[in-house]
Design a protein that fits this description.
This protein is an alpha+beta fold. 45% of the residues lie in helices and 15% in strands. It is built from 7 helices and 5 strands, in the order H-E-E-E-E-E-H-H-H-H-H-H. A hairpin with a 6-residue loop joins strand 3 and strand 4. It is globular.
């Protein structure tokens, strides 16, 4: 998922019975401008549309992921002080949606504390996509999971994985012969 898609998740988007997450909207920061429309005077965090039409999708999740989310859902009410957005999955301790810049900052601190070299948060999405391709997942399936508008975009972004896939294809064909 893109960060905004994650932060925009509501508990209604998670189907625990079938282990599915429905990506239907995202969280965005929207600027508020002065009367002339030139200067940003404030901003608000809002639930909004997704990046593309294809971004709206359903993603299957593993049993372990569903269990962790359910455990988190049950614990969430214990650490939220104010119930402003009762149905959101990711909330601050004050019960408000996270700001994406705050999440990125916390993510960077976590990586540093764990001794992991810094990578942008979005790199997690790229790693997921790369692992899909490396494990022979069909590009069309990867496109659907990632919410890319076309398979061409998926292939253009992750074409660096193709040389290894070509080697694997040759090995499989060799074994058939």
């Amino acid at each position: 998922c893109r960060l905004g898609e994650l932060l925009g998740l509501s508990w209604d988007d998670i189907d625990f019975e079938n282990n599915l997450i429905h990506i239907t909207h995202g969280l965005k920061r929207e600027n508020i401008y002065d009367e002339e429309g030139k200067n940003v005077i404030d901003s608000v965090i809002k639930i909004g549309d997704l990046k593309t039409v294809k971004s709206k999708r359903t993603i299957p999740i593993a049993d372990v992921t569903a269990r962790v989310l359910m455990k988190y859902k049950l614990k969430q009410r214990e650490f939220i002080d104010v119930d402003v957005y009762p149905n959101m999955v990711f909330l601050t301790r004050k019960g408000k949606p996270f700001d994406s810049s705050s999440v990125r900052t916390q993510y960077a601190r976590l990586l540093k504390r764990l001794g992991i070299p810094y990578r942008k948060f979005h790199a997690l999405r790229h790693t997921y996509a790369t692992r899909l391709m490396e494990n022979g997942i069909h590009p069309k399936v990867a496109q659907e999971l990632l919410g890319h508008s076309t398979c061409d975009i998926t292939m253009a972004v992750y074409s660096h994985v193709l040389p290894e896939q070509m080697k694997l294809a040759v090995e499989k064909i060799k074994n058939i012969l």
